Write a sequence for this structure.
């Protein structure tokens, strides 16, 4: 099993990796690769922030519902139960 310990990669290893990348891709391709990597990271961060905002919005909605302390009317609960039973019966058929 391969185990990587933080701090194992030193200056010599980084230089070796840089030389290998330079040989494989050439000097002209490296800026394009870095540009693509930067765009990918930007999109990833944007997606993560979007998900965090959605979670925060849902949390605020839940908290506001809990603090309101309002119970659902009986007819809404009964309607929901009937709809659930209808879906279950449709799945059986």
């Amino acid at each position: 099993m391969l185990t990587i310990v933080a701090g194992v990669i030193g200056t010599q290893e980084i230089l070796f990796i840089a030389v290998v990348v330079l040989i494989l891709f050439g000097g002209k391709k490296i800026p394009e690769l870095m540009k693509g990597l930067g765009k990918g990271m930007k999109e990833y961060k944007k997606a993560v922030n979007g998900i965090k905002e959605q979670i925060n919005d849902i949390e605020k909605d839940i908290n506001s519902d809990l603090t309101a302390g309002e119970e659902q009317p009986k007819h809404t609960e009964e309607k929901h139960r009937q709809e659930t039973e209808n879906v279950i019966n449709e799945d059986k058929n």
Summary: The radius of gyration is 27 Å. The chain is about 85% helix and 0% strand. Residues 36 and 42 are 10 Å apart (CA to CA).
